[in-house]
Amino acid sequence: MVELGPDGLTGYLVAAAVLFVAGVFAAVARRNAIGVLIGIELMLNAAALQFTAYGRIHAATGDVQGQTAGVFVVVVAAAEAVVALALLFAVYRSAHDIDLEKTRELHS
Amino acid sequence: MSVEVLSVVVLLIPLAAAALTARIRHSDLAHAIGAVAMAACTVLAVVVAIDVVGRGVAVQGPHLRWLELGAFELGGFELGAGTFVDPLGAVMAVIVTALATLVLVFDAWYLRGDPLAARFPWQLCGFAFAMLAVVLADNLLMAFVGWELVGLGSYLLIGFWFHKPAASDDAEYQRNKGAGARGVIEASLSPSFAQQKAFVMNRVGDAGFLLGIGIVLVAALANGQRDPLSWSSLATLAAGGTSEALLTLAALGVFCGAIAKSAQFPLHPWLPDAMQGPTTASSIIHAATMVAAGVFLVARCEALFTTTALDVVGWIGGITCLLAAAIACVQWDLKAVLAYSTISQLGLMFVGLGAGPEAGGRAAGIAHLFTHAGFKCLLFLCAGAVIHACAGHQDLARLGGLRKRMPITAIASLLAVLAISGAPLTSGAFSKDGVLAAALAHATASGGLAYGPLVLAVIGSLLTAIYMFRWWLRLFAGDARVPDCSAHAHDPARSASVVLLVMAPFTLGLPWTFGGWLETALSGTRVPGAALAEAHHTATWIATALFVTGTLVAFVLFAPRSGLGALLARRLRAVHAACSELFWIDRIQDRVVARGLGRGLARIIARLDLGDGARITSLDGLIDGLGRGLTRIGGAGSLVHAGRLGVYVAVAAIAVTAVLFAVLAP
After folding, report:
1. A36 Cβ under 8 Å from any chain B Cβ
2. pLDDT (tens digit, 9 = 90+) per residue, B180-200?
3. Is residue A106 in a domain?
4. Do B646 and A104 make contact, defined as CB atoms within 8 angstroms?
């Protein structure tokens, strides 16, 4: 049942799960906002990995929906990074810090 | 212009005049503009009255829909305001506008030199507008609005000299007051207090009035009326739309309002206190506007009044008539006599109305309202002339012998006194006959207790002749008792004297009976029955006998050199004291209602409202507690929203995981 190696599915799923949990941990525990962003990127990539892994199973029939979704995730992640970094710039300008423990007030 | 449109113009001219004169600071100019406007209004009102009375019809003028609830086909209804002129309202409108005009002309002289004089015209015009809104209203709602505005008008005029101190602290009042003024509570007698007293007492009556309107509204809606408060709707209700008990209740509610407005027992004490206003204001309040509204409304809502309700009206009127006449006999303030006389005469009108339409009571009561408006207004203007001439003196014990110095005033007031006493051929005799005839016809038809109001009215009428001649004899006959009071007395200036002379002919019967126009107008097409004709015959004899007896008694007791009046007062000390003390009604109301009940209630409400400031045992505490509780809940909630981004993400992740498990778990 357990099929590790390039043709199996389980190895990809385990790798994706590890990536996702690492991302969640980073998003929850990191105090640096950049760290949190990296955590979110990890979660997105875990999702993209799963898409492509499942897509691989159906690739023989010419169905590439999984891969397409993976590409979409990459694009969304890029857009998200742009917006989030812009927000971080704005926060830094007003609070002179991006430590999330220190920037808890909505107005400074 | 058609009558429909004219009626609206008549209604709105006084309002426009009030708005215009309110901006004018110059007294004479303001009075002149007000008088010209009201005179124009009078002319138009006369045109309307001649048309409506001549044709004997009721005219529905323009109607403005204010509130439409639901579609008519589905049982919806509408409320609004519009004009409605029938002979009753048309004649009343003429009287209101005509008296307002004359009073304004007189007042321009009376208040000359008073720094507040320029305020009088707009208040009077506004007052006249309010009264016309009651008189020309086409439904109960608009009548109620006018009714409340009338209350406001009287409030303003009674408190005209709002800066005056209480009578107990007023040196001028103490110097000029009548020697025997015993029942008055001086500590709470001032213009500002009197205006509040009038307003609050009318609130008591209005509570009943509102209840009556509510009952009519509900009953009419249950009956499927689309215009539930219109006069025609009332008639439909009475014609068999609803139960008799409900009608009686509604009628008593309306009458409750009338008791307060028309100063009937037990809500009458505001009217004598209202003498705190200028005498000219009193003359309009007592004649055409304020107190007339109550009588008018009862006549207007005649359809609602069942036999039971009419009996209540008659009895209250009778009691008031006698009570106030007895009090008037022993008053020493010349205006107080007139005030109680008004209360007594209003009681007589209610005796008439209480006799019911079959006995011709409505026509009789209203006829007395009209004629009374004429001679009472004149009496008050004469009183004003006397007070003005004698530098504020109002004491019947000190004034005297004014006929030589003020001949016009003396003759005008003598005519008015004859009229109010019911001397033959005067207007008062004509209308008082009618009231007594109606009461007699009603009593003969019903028997038993129905004789009560008649007897009370007869005794009251006898006393009327006595106290009115006492008043006149004290003021105008004999010689001045304290000469310096009236040393410089003289008739009013020409403009004001003309007003007295214009009004004097209307104390005679002829203007009212000419061609029988008033009777025709008021009784409509109803032909008085034989029983009423016979009652009228008897009543004429009774009224004449009452006048002759009363006048003789007054001359015997109060002729200039007769000491019999004082002797009688000593012999009947208990009765005299009771009358002088106003039957303790003022004091009882002050103690029990104002101080006891009122302050007690206020204290309870204050306790409920403010509490002791700490616990949630009061409205204030409840609101504060609610606020504090919400703050506490918010404080607890704010711990969750501490702004820690990590916590949010963790909660979101755990929640999403939990939801996914719940959804996907097999």
Report:
1. yes
2. 666 677 777 888 888 888 888
3. no
4. no
